[in-house]
Amino acid sequence: MYYVIRDSDKLPPSIIHEDHYFAWYNPLKKDHRVEFRGTMNQCYDFMSNQYPQQQQQRYSFR
Q1: pLDDT tens digit string along 6-41?
Q2: What sign does the CA torsion over 18, 21, 23, 29 have?
Q3: How far is CA 24 from the centre of its chain?
Q4: What is each CA distance from 23 to 19, 26, 49, in whole angstroms?
Q5: Tell me, what's the pLDDT at 60?
Q6: Side-by-side strand order, sheet with 2-6
Q7: What residue ranges do the domains of the chain occupy?
Q8: Residue 19 and which of 3, 10, 43, 61 are 20 to 30 A apart at CA?
Q9: DSSP 3-state percent helix, strand, coil across the chain (nearest 5)
Q10: Within a 13 Å sphere around the CA of 46, how many CA atoms are in the beta-carbon half?
Q11: 40 membership: H or E segment, kind and range
Q12: Could you tell me the pTM of the whole model?
């Protein structure tokens, strides 16, 4: 299981594995938001559909 995590509105979301999620984040704290749960491919599909503009800006080589 993988998670799409958003720490802040200013930073892009991250995809992390379930083991790393519980090592880094406390689910009871409200310092982050889980936007999606699923397989790695499902998380990448979610990211590409939800945040297409951020990925284009992040990977532009101008």
Answers
A1: 988 888 899 999 999 999 998 898 899 999 999 999
A2: negative
A3: 14
A4: 6, 8, 28
A5: 46
A6: 14-17, 2-6, 33-38
A7: 2-57
A8: 10
A9: 40, 25, 35
A10: 17
A11: helix 40-50
A12: 0.75
